[in-house]
Amino acid sequence: xxxxxxxxxxxxxxxxxxxxxxxxxxxxxxxxxxxxxxxxxxxxxxxxxxxxxxxxxxxxxxxxxxxxxxxxxxxxxxxxxxxxxxxxx
Length: 89
Prior knowledge:
Helix content: 10-25%
Number of helices: 1
Order of helices and strands: HEEEE
Largest sheet: 2 strands, antiparallel
Oligomer: single chain
Distance between the termini: 64 Å
């Protein structure tokens, strides 16, 4: 029985190309950046406040490689803010 190497080679190249073309590209993953910013009326340092008094905290978030999809603020082990989103920075 004669082996037709030309057809075997073509099939091998096609299968090889399919397996290599379906991989996700692994680029450098850049983490998100969170920055606390200050404006008039915001807390600048250790500040005592009474129960029920409002304080202002400004947070600026910049997405890295992926969109920011979840943000939570935890104070003394308790979730104060729990927000789901999908936004580019």
